[in-house]
Amino acid sequence: MIYAFILGRIFTLSVAELLSVFERENIDYKILASSAEILIVEMAKPIKNEQAFLDNLGGIVKIIEVFGEENKDSSLANVLTADKLINRYPNIKREIENIPSPKFYWGLSVYFICNADLHKKQKIAKKIQSYMFGAKEILRERLIKCRVVTPPPNKFALDAPNVEKNNLIKKGGEIVVIVDKEKIYWGKTRAIQNFRFYGLRDFGRPARSMKIGMMPPKLAQIMINLAQSPKGREILDPFCGTAVVLQEAMLMGHSVIGADSDNSTIALAKENLEWLAETVKRKNPLSAISEEMFRLFQADAMQIAKMIPSNSISAIVTEGTLGPRYSRAFPSGKQIIDNFKNLEKLYLGAFAQFKEILKKDGRIVISFPVYVFKGARQEFVPFLDKIAQLGYNIKSPIKADRIKDIPLFTLSKNGTIVYSRPDQIVGREIVVFIKK
User: Fold this and answer.
1) What pLDDT, on a 0 to 100 scale, did the predictor assign at position 96?
2) What residue numbers bound the domain in which 183 lies?
3) Same domain, 157 and 279
4) 66 and 12 within one domain
5) Which pTM does this prediction carry?
6) Which candidate, 41, 130, 162, 307, has a CA 20 to 30 Å from the CA of 412?
């Protein structure tokens, strides 16, 4: 089976998450092609439930099943015909057979792996669209009503809201054409990112705090997957804040432990997790999410080993303080040094405690602050080696032999991944540690 995965904004982070899941699930795969927004993978077995698989991936936007490949775009004229499209999509065929003159929707998205200029891309996309509209006219002659949904001007692909709005997954089909330098892949979208539920988990939670900081739910999911903890294993967040990591871990089937030094913050976390359990149960009464899946308590991370049995935790996923927030004025060199000194004391103390409670080979996935300068210069925390000396190895996000297959996969000078937004002063350095 061949699948194309449409990637999120941070290419390296999205790829690292996906390959970490493959590794955790012992999935055999081979990377066929990649670009800044797409990864094409040949897998030994099909994905049983593409939507469920995608719902647990914060860095993947779409999953596309690839049906075939052609050497030249002219060959698609023979593939994108009315009869072949209908036969390829059984749900559309059933509608046509069972409902007199049904109207259904076909979406069309074109992605590019080749480095063509904008004019050439527009020309190729227009040609592919002409094949689809030709199929539509043939169907109209047969008194079969259909509509072809194309991307907005200056775009080549439909986004998730457009796919959902036109119900292309359940009642129609989003046909996807992926253009490489020497070949063209074609297939159908099987799953899209549930952007509404992500929005609800981010902005719809009852307790949010700008002072504490807010990790995006998608990033929390990615970090949990980088920990490679099997479903059902307990995950600890010792700087849990308002429980973003904990809520995502619960949705992914983990029981969770959350701790924070501030008791009022623990109250906010409890409110959010109770809301999550109630919200999910209301949508799906058979859901396994429940209040029994989480345990919260007040504790300083530098003393947390007093609260948790030794060698009992297999994974820690967390984000402590990133230091002061900056919106406009960039901090001075002295301010950055002072911030790092303050954080060093906290994290060295915390990691000494983590070593006591982690199982052997247990993983820690954590984000540290990274200062992002204009001109691409970055300033990282200077104490990763000191943490390693406490009894940890810093692990590459993916196996070294896989990196050579992905030219755009880029790690920092520390072998870690940087997550930041344009014009952001303080980004995140995502680091994976393994206890020796």
Assistant:
1) 61
2) 2-193
3) no
4) yes
5) 0.93
6) 41
Residue 156 and residue 104 share a domain: yes
User: Which pLDDT belongs to residue 94?
Assistant: 63
Q: What is the pLDDT of residues 157-171, one digit of tens each?
A: 999 999 999 888 877
Return the structure tokens found at 24: 């955790």
Residues 352-387: pLDDT tens digits? Answer: 999 999 999 999 999 999 998 876 789 999 999 999
Both 122 and 220 in one domain: the answer is no
CA atoms of 190 and 185, how far apart (whole Å)? 15
**Own/partner pairs for 119-122, CB < 8 Å, 24+ apart?**
121/156, 121/179
Distances (CA, A) of 262 to 241, 270, 324, 340: 9, 13, 18, 22
- The average pLDDT across 402-426 equals 90
**330, 318, 348, 315: which is closest to 428 by C-alpha?**
318
Last residue of a domain, one of 174, 193, 212: 193
**Is 172 found in the same domain as 50?**
yes
238, 259 in Cβ contact below 8 A? yes
Q: How many CA atoms lie within 13 A of 334 on its CB side?
A: 0
Q: CATH number, domain at 71?
A: 3.30.2130.30
Burial class of residue 374 (count of CB atoms within 10 Å of its CB; 0-12, 13-18, 19+)? exposed
Helices 217-226 and 11-24 meet at what angle, rounded to 10? Answer: 50
pLDDT exceeds 90 at position 141: no
Residue 339 belongs to domain with CATH number: 3.40.50.150
Q: Are residues 392 and 414 part of one domain?
A: yes
Return d(Cα 76, Cα 97) in angstroms, integer. 26
Q: How many domains are contained in the chain?
A: 2
Give the closest residue to 33 by CA, choosing from 179, 160, 158, 177: 179
Place of tokens 């200062």: 371
